[in-house]
Amino acid sequence: MIRISSQQIFSGGINRLQDLNSSLNQTQEQISTGKRVNRPSDDPVAAARILKLDQELSRIETYQRNAGLAENRLQQEESTLASSVDVIQRVRELTVQAGNGSLSANDRKSISSEIKERLGQLANIANTRDASGEYIFSGFQGNTAAFAKDDSGSWVYQGDEGQRVLEIDDGVTVPISDHGKGIFSNIAAAVFAEGDPANAAEARIDGIRVTDNGDLATVSPDDITLTVDTATATITAINSRTGDPLPDSPVNYVSGEPFEIAGVQATITDAAAGDEFTIRAGEKQSVFATFENLIDGLDTIDKGSPAGQAAYDDLIAASLQNLDNAQESVVQKQTELGGRLNAVESTRSFLEDSSVYSEEIRSELQDVDYAEAISNLSFQSFVLQAAQQSFAQVSRLSLFDRL
C-alpha cells in the first residue's frame, strides 16, 4: 500500500496548475505577438534557423539599399551625359553653319557668342553634384569641382582618375562613378599639321583630311615628319618617333596641289628646299578645348587672304572631327552605363526573390497559426479550470471525513 502525504498532494497539484498556467500564458503570448517562437526555449531548433534567416534578410536588405544607391547614381550620370550630348550636338550644328562661306564677320561673331554660352553650359553639366553634394565626375575628389578655369581662362580637369564601386551582392560589385578626364578630356583630336619655325615665311600646310583610317592607324599615335625637296619635287615622309620612312614615301610635290601620305591628304604651298612639316596623328584634346579653339578662330581668323581662308577651313574641318570624337566618347560611356544599369536591375530582381523566399521560410517557422492557437487556448483554459476545481476538492479532503 502506497501512502501519499498531504504535502505531496498539495505539491503535485500546485506544480500541475503551474504547468498548465505556463502553457496557457505561452499560448496567449503567441496570439498577442503573432509569433510561435518568441524565445529560444520555445523551439531551440526553429529559433536557430530563424536567427540565420534574420541575418540573411539583413544582408539582403543592405545589398538592396546599395543596389538602389547604385541605380540612382548611374541614372543621374546617364541623364547628365545625355544633356552633354545635346550641347555638343548643338555646337556641331553651329559649326556647320559657320562653315557657310556667305556668312559675314558679324554672323560668325554671333555664332561664337552662342558657343561661349554652350561652353559655360557644358562646364555646369560636367560639374554636376549628387544628392550628397559631391561632384560626380571628380573621381575620388568629390569635394573638388571636376572642371575649373586655369590662369589662362581655359577649362581644365581638377579631379583624379579614381572610380568608385559598390558591392550589391556577395562578390558582385558595380562601378558607380566615372572621372571626367576619361569622358571629356582624353579625346582623340583631329589630325592636324604645323610647320617648323625655320621654314620659309610664306610656306604653309593646310587642307588636312583623313582619307583612310586604316592606313593612318599604321602610324598613329606617332607623328609624321614631312620634308620638301624642291630639286626632285618630292616630299619625304618618316615616322617622327622611329625615323623610319613610310612605305608610300616619297610622294610628288606640287605647290598648292594636294598629296596623300599614310591615309592623310594635305596641301603644302610655297615651300623652300628642306622645309619641314609635322602631321600630328596621336594628340588628345578635351571637348572644352575644342569649343575654345573654335570660339577663338571664329573671332580672330581673317578670311581676306588665301592663307586666312585655308586656316578657317581647317578650323571648321578639325572642329567637326573633334566634336564627333567628343560625342562618340560620351555615347560610348552611355552604352557602358546601360550595361551597368542592366546588371544592377538583374541583381535587384534576384535579391527581391531571395528576400521573399527567406521571409516565407521564416514565416513558416516563426508565425503562429491563429486558428490552432485559439483552439489550444480554449482547450488549455478548460483544462486549467478543471484542474483548479479538482485541486480545490482534493485539498479539502481529510481523514476526519471518513469518521
TrEMBL record:
This protein's record includes keyword Secreted: yes
GO biological process, one term: bacterial-type flagellum-dependent cell motility
Keywords linked to the UniProt accession: Bacterial flagellum, Cell projection, Cilium, Coiled coil, Flagellum, Secreted
Keyword Secreted part of the UniProt annotation: yes
Coiled coil stretches, renumbered: 53-80
Pfam families membership: Flagellin_C (PF00700), Flagellin_N (PF00669)
Database matches in SUPFAM superfamilies: Phase 1 flagellin
A molecular function (GO) term: structural molecule activity
Location relative to the cell: Bacterial flagellum; Secreted
Main location: other
Domain Flagellin N-terminal: start-end pairs: 15-140
Cross-referenced InterPro entries: Flagell_FlgL, Flagellin, Flagellin_C, Flagellin_N
Gene3D superfamilies found in the cross-reference section: f41 fragment of flagellin, N-terminal domain
Domain Flagellin C-terminal: 320-397
Entry GO CC: bacterial-type flagellum hook; extracellular region
Matches recorded under PANTHER family: FLAGELLAR HOOK-ASSOCIATED PROTEIN 3 (PTHR42792:SF1), FLAGELLIN (PTHR42792)
Family that this chain belongs to: Belongs to the bacterial flagellin family.
Protein name (Swiss-Prot/TrEMBL): Flagellar hook-associated protein FlgL
UniProt gene name: flgL
